[in-house]
Automatic annotation (TrEMBL):
SUPFAM superfamilies per UniProt: Staphylococcal nuclease (SSF50199)
One term of GO molecular function: hydrolase activity
Record-linked InterPro entries: SNase_OB-fold_sf, Staphylococal_nuclease_OB-fold
Any single Pfam family the record assigns to this protein: SNase
Domain TNase-like: 41-184
Domain of life, per lineage: Bacteria
UniProt-listed PROSITE patterns: TNASE_3
Keyword Transmembrane recorded: no
UniProtKB keywords: Endonuclease, Hydrolase, Nuclease
Name of the protein in its database record: Thermonuclease family protein
Length: 184
């Protein structure tokens, strides 16, 4: 059964209604896209080795890359200038600092092993001043490594703008570690 609109005025009204609906739908789509969080883009990499509590060596897009975990800072594993500054800042001796750094690296090695596929999530800055990739690292079971290191108490929070996407999540993990008296 076919209906026809007889008058030109009725056709004009029908066309106006269609345009209004189309315009409203487009506005709704733009508002939804702005308000709804987008799923973070994650890219696969293969772990080559754990360097320390906050740096990994990976194969990413066919190249060997160093990955600095965003938002955390684990103690140094070796006595160097950074470990000495940390000792002064925290009023702890170098042996204590490096022991905590070694334990942080051991913890990371228990979470991820050579050959494991990990997922890298980038924030605003993709590389640091040393050329390392800056990333949130996800393990095969979906947990975020950066967050797990904090939750276990093996690192301090170190969020620096503009890479602050998961700051609240990190603060919650660190306070959970403190409350449970884990780690640092």
């Amino acid at each position: 059964m076919k209906f026809q609109i007889a008058s030109p005025e009725a056709k004009l009204i029908a066309m106006h209604i269609k345009q209004s609906i189309r315009s409203t739908l487009i506005v709704f789509i733009f508002i939804a896209a702005a308000v709804l969080p987008l799923k973070a883009e994650q890219e696969p990499a293969t772990l080559i080795r754990v360097i320390d509590g906050n740096v990994l060596k990976v194969e990413y897009k066919g190249k060997k890359e160093s990955v600095r975990l965003i938002g955390i800072n684990a103690p140094e594993c070796k006595i160097n200038r950074k470990a000495k500054r940390e000792a002064v800042r925290t009023r702890q001796d170098l042996l204590t600092i490096t022991s905590m750094g070694i334990e942080a690296a051991r913890y990371v090695k228990r979470q991820v092993r050579k050959g494991d596929t990990i997922m890298l999530e980038f924030d605003v800055q993709v590389r640091d001043k040393y050329g390392r990739l800056l990333s949130y690292v996800y393990l095969q079971d979906g947990r975020m490594l950066n967050e797990e290191i904090l939750r276990a108490g093996h690192a301090y929070i170190m969020t620096a703008a503009p890479n602050v996407k998961h700051r609240d999540r990190f603060q919650k993990a660190r306070s959970e570690a403190r409350k449970s008296r884990r780690g640092l």
